[in-house]
Amino acid sequence: MTTSPIPIADIHRPSGKVRSAWLQPLGLIGAGMLLIIVVAAVLAPWLVPHDPNAQSFGRFLPPNAENWFGTDQLGRDIFSRVVHGARVSMPYALQLVVMAAVIGTIAGAIAGYFGGWVDSVIMRAADLVMSFPDIILAMAVVAALGPNLFNAVLAVVIVSWPIYARVVRSMILTLRDEPYVQSSRLLGASSGRTLWRDIRPNVAGPVAVLAALEYGHAVLILSGLSFLGLGAQPPTAEWGSMVSEGAKYFDKWWMSVFPGLAILVVVLAANFLGDTLRDAFDPKSAKAFR
Amino acid sequence: MEQQIKRAWYALPSLLRFVLRRLAVGVLLCVGVTLISFTLTQVVPGDPVAASLGEHAAADPDTVAAFRQRFGLDKPLPEQYAIYLGNLLQGNLGESLQTRRPVADDLAKYMSATIELSIVAMTIAMLGGLALGIVAAVNRDRWPDQVIRVVSLAGVSVPTFWLSLVCLYVFFFQLGWSPGVGRLPPGVSSPVTITGLYTIDALLTGNWKLLWQALSHLALPAMVLAIYTIGAITRFTRAAMLDALQQDFVRSARAKGMPERTVVLRHVLRPALAAIITVSGMAFGRMLGGAVLVESVFSWPGLGEYAYRSALALDLRAIMGVSLVIAAIYILVNLVVDILYAVVDPRIRLS
Amino acid sequence: MTGAPLVSIENLTISLPARDGSRLFPVRDVSLSIAPGEILGLAGESGSGKTITALSLLGLLPPGGRMSGHIHFDGKDLLTLPPREISAIRGRDIAMVFQDPMTALHPMLSIEKQMTEHLRHHRGVDAAAARARAIELLDLVRIPNAAQALKRFPHQFSGGMRQRIAIAIALCCGPRLLIADEPTTALDVTVQAGILRLLQQLRSELGLSVLLITHDMGVMSALTDRVAVMYAGRVVEEGGRQAVLQTPRHPYTHGLLQALPHERGDDMLLTPLQGSPPAIGALPPGCPFNPRCAWAEGRCREAEPVLRAVEAQRSIACVVDPLVKVPA
C-alpha cells in the first residue's frame, strides 16, 4: 500500500472536523435554542414585561394574558422571574464547567505525563472523589461551607474535576508515545513546551466536547442543590429554588412547572449540541461527516 | 513460607483471585472514605455543639464542657479518629446529635428504604435501557433509532425533582392513579421486619394486601428515578453496540451463516455488555444522587433524606455514618460491576 | 482438471452506494471459475476488488450493495437464491478465513463455542457430537491438546495457532470451497510456511477447493494451481501458475512480479511499480492501468480492453502484447 509522507506543517494538526458538525439538524436546533435563550437572558432587563422582584400582582394568579406564567405567593410575575433565572443558572453552570475542566485537565495532564507517584496520588484522589455520588458529596461540602450559590458551584467543581482528569490522563498516556511528541522531546523541547504545543491541540477537542456534554449536567445539579435549599437563596430568581417554592403550594401548578420546563429546555439544547459535537469529533463514528 | 502462600494463591480459580483483589481495594477505599468524612467534619466552620444545644445552653461553659466530654469532642483529633475506627469495626457508629439514637440504627432503617427504591429503579433502567439501546443500534439511522435517541436524550435532560413534582401532580393529584407519598398509605403499619424491604417482607409473610400497597407506592418514585438512568444506559448501549457491530468478528459470525439475531445477541452484545456494565456502576452512583431529590418530594424515608437533614443540622456522627454507608454501597456496586465484567470478558480475569 | 467447475462466476458486477448518491463499481464484469480440488490464486493490490469478489460468494456485501451476473455453485445461481438459502450455504458449503485471526475470532467466546455454534446451527448436531468433531478438526490442523484448547480463548494462542483455529472453524461443517483472504499476511514469515503447507494438505486430504486471495506473489507461487490477477475491479490476466508467474503477459502482472526483490548478476534489484491504483470512482479513460504502464500506446486510452484468450487456458485483458513489444 502506498502512503504519502506527512508534510511537516501538518504533524501537530488534530483531526477535528468541526465544519460538518453544524450540518446535523439536531445540533443546529440545539445551538439555535441556546442562542435564543442566551440572547433573552442578556437582554432580560429590557425584554421582560415586569420587574421579577416586584410584588405587583394578585397572589397565586394562574397564567393569563398579563402574566403568561401566572404569579407566585408574593404576587410576582413568574414569566419575568423565569427569564431572569437564565441569568443565574446558566452563567454559574458555565463557570462551573470551565473551572472543573481546567482543574481536571491540568491534574490529568500532570498525572499522565509524569507518571510515577504523582500519577498515583492524583488518580487515587480522583477515585476517592468519584466513589461518592456527586450530589451527596456536593451537599456535604455546601453544608460545611454555608448554603449559597457560590459555594454550590465550588462544591460541584470539587465533585466534577475527576471526569476530566481521567479522560485527559488516558489521552496523554496514548499521545505520550506518539512519534511527533517523541521527536519534539528529542529536539530538545522541555516538558512544558511539549505539553503546550504538541499535546494540547489534540486534547483540547475532546475536553471541549466533554465540557459541552457536562454543561447540561451542571445546570441540573446546580438547580437540584438550589431546590434543596443549598444553592441560590431567595429572593434570587433561580429555577431550582422557584420549583421548590412552588412545591409548597402544590395545586398552584404553574409555579413549579414553568421554571422546571426552562431547565429542561436549556439542558436539552445543551445535550443536543454536545452530542453533535461529540459525533463530529469521534473518528470512529461512521457518520456522513467524512 | 512465602512460597507456600504464593502457590496457594495461584491455585485458586482466577475469578476468585480477581474478586479477592478487588475486595481488598474496596476495603482500602472505605477506609479512605472514613478519613475524608472525618476530615470534612473537622473543617466545618460552624460549631456543632452550638448547633445542637441551642444558643441559650451553649452560652453556659459547663453545659458545653459536659456535652463535649459526653461526645468525646474534647480529645485530640487523631485519637478521636482512632476511637471512631475502633467503634466502627464493632458496628458502633456513634450517636446522632439530632435523634440521640445510635447512628447505626437510624442508618439501618433509612438504608432499606433507599435500597428498595434503588433496586427497583435500577432494574427498570437496565432492562429498559438495554432493550432500547439494542433496538436503536440494530436499526441505525432509521426511524426507531431516531425516536429512541431523542427520547433518551430527553430522559437525561429532565430535572429529577421537577419530574417528581409533575408526576405526583398528574398521576396522584389529578388522575388518582398513584396512591401518593410515603412508602405505605397513612395509618398502615409496616410488615414484620425481615429484610427491611417492605415488598419482600410482605411477600415473605404472605401479606398480599400490604404487598400491593407497598408496590403501588413504590411505582411512581421508582419510575421517576429510573428515567435519567434509562436515558443514560440507552445511549451508552447504543454506542457500545454500534462499536461492536463494526468489529471483524461480527463479519466472521455472519460468514459462518449464523442467523442475524444470534449474531446480535451472542456476538455483538457480549463485548458491548462489558462496556455497558462498567458504565452502569457510574450510572448507579448518579442515580443514588437523584434519589436524594426523589426522596424529598415523595417523602420517602431514605438515606437521601437522612443525609440532607444531617447536613443541615451539622450532625457530625450522622454525616459520617451516611457518607460511609453511601460510599460503601457505591463501592460494593462497583465491585459487583468489576466482577460481572470479568465474567463477561475472560481476558480480564486471566491476566 | 476436467469436469464441471465447482464454482463459476460469470460477468459479476458489484455496485456500492457512494456518499453523494451515485454508485461505485468496485467489481466490473468479472468471470472466474474454480474446479473441485483446485487452488485458485487471486492477486492484486488493495482496492483491486479481490476481497469484495470473495465476499460476494457468501452474499456479504455492505449495505446498499447490489450484484448482477451469475455465480453458479452446486447447480444453483447464488444471485437468484432467497436470503434463507444463502445463509444456509454460508459456513456450511462455502467458508471463509480472514486476514487477521486476532480480530476475526471473537475474543470472549471459547474456542469450542466458536467451532460448534455454526455446526449445530447448520446440521442440527448435538453438543457431544459437535465437540467430537471440533477435536477432530483441531487435530487435523495440528493444534496440540485439542480437548484443553476447546476451553480456551483466542488471546491465549499465538498468531499462527489462531489462524489454524480459524481454518478449523471454517472446516467444521465440511465445506467444499474455502476462501482464504490474505491468510498469512498478518503472520510472521516463519509461521506463514506452516499455514500454506496446511492448506495444501487440506486440499489433498479433503479434496477442498481454495480461493486464495493475496497480494504476495511469493505465496502465490508456493501454493496455487491457477492464478487470476485483478486490477481496478477487473480480471486482467488469468492462467496456470507456472505460465503466469514465469511469463506474465499483462503489463500489470509483469510489474507485480518485477516489484519482488530479484537478483541481476551481483545486485539485488528493487523496481517498484510507479504510481498507485486508481480510486474506484475516478478511473482513467480507456485501460485503467495505462497511466502506469510501460507498454502504453495511444489506443490504450480509447477503450477498456476485454479479457481475451491468448493461449489455451490463458487470457489477458490488454491490446498490446508484452511478449512481442518492447516497453517504451
Break the fold down into its secondary structure elements and pairings.
The complex is a heterotrimer of chains A (290), B (351) and C (328).
Chain A: H1 18-21, H2 25-42, H3 44-47, H4 78-114, H5 116-130, H6 134-145, H7 149-175, H8 179-186, H9 191-227, H10 239-248, H11 254-281
Helix pairs in contact in A: 2-4, 2-11, 4-5, 4-7, 4-9, 4-11, 5-7, 6-7, 7-9, 8-9, 9-10, 9-11, 10-11
Chain B: H1 2-11, H2 14-42, H3 48-58, H4 61-70, H5 77-89, H6 103-138, H7 143-157, H8 160-174, H9 198-204, H10 208-245, H11 248-255, H12 260-297, H13 303-313, H14 316-344, H15 346-349
Helix pairs in contact in B: 2-14, 3-4, 6-7, 6-10, 6-12, 6-13, 6-14, 7-10, 8-10, 8-12, 9-10, 10-12, 11-12, 12-13, 12-14, 13-14
Chain C: E1 7-17, E2 23-34, E3 39-43, H1 50-57, E4 66-73, E5 76-77, H2 83-89, E6 94-97, H3 101-104, H4 111-123, H5 127-140, H6 146-151, H7 159-171, E7 177-181, H8 189-206, E8 209-213, H9 217-223, E9 226-231, E10 234-240, H10 241-246, H11 251-258, E11 262-264, E12 267-269, E13 308-311, E14 314-316
Parallel strand pairs in C: 3-8, 3-9, 6-7, 7-8
Antiparallel strand pairs in C: 1-2, 1-4, 4-5, 9-10, 10-14, 11-12, 13-14
Helix pairs in contact in C: 4-5, 4-7, 5-7, 7-8
Which features characterize this protein?
heterotrimer; A: 290 residues; mainly alpha; 11 helices; 69% helix; elongated; disordered N terminus; disordered C terminus; C: 328 residues; alpha/beta; 8-stranded mixed β-sheet; 4-stranded antiparallel β-sheet; 14 strands; 32% helix; globular
Overall shape of chain A: it is: elongated
- Any idea what the shape of chain C is? globular
Q: How would a textbook summarize the main sheet of chain A?
A: none
The count of strands of chain A amounts to 0
Sequence of secondary-structure elements of chain C: EEEHEEHEHHHHHEHEHEEHHEEEE
For the largest beta-sheet of chain C, the strand count, sense and barrel status come to: 8 strands, mixed
Compute the gyration radius of chain A: what is it? 23 Å
SS field, number of helical segments of chain C: 11
| Regions with little confidence, pLDDT below 50 for 5+ residues of chain A | 1-23, 284-290
**N/C terminus separation of chain A:** 21 Å
In whole angstroms, how far apart are the ends of chain C?
39 Å
Radius of gyration of chain C: 21 Å
Secondary structure class of chain A reads mainly alpha
Average pLDDT taken over every residue of chain C: 87
Beta-strand segment tally of chain C: 14
Structural class of chain C: alpha/beta
User: Helix content range of the residues of chain A, please?
Assistant: 55-70%
* Overall residue-averaged pLDDT value of chain A: 78
Question: What does the oligomeric state look like here?
Answer: heterotrimer
What is the string of SSEs of chain A from the N terminus onward? HHHHHHHHHHH
Taking pLDDT < 50 over at least 5 consecutive residues as the criterion, the unreliable ranges of chain C are none
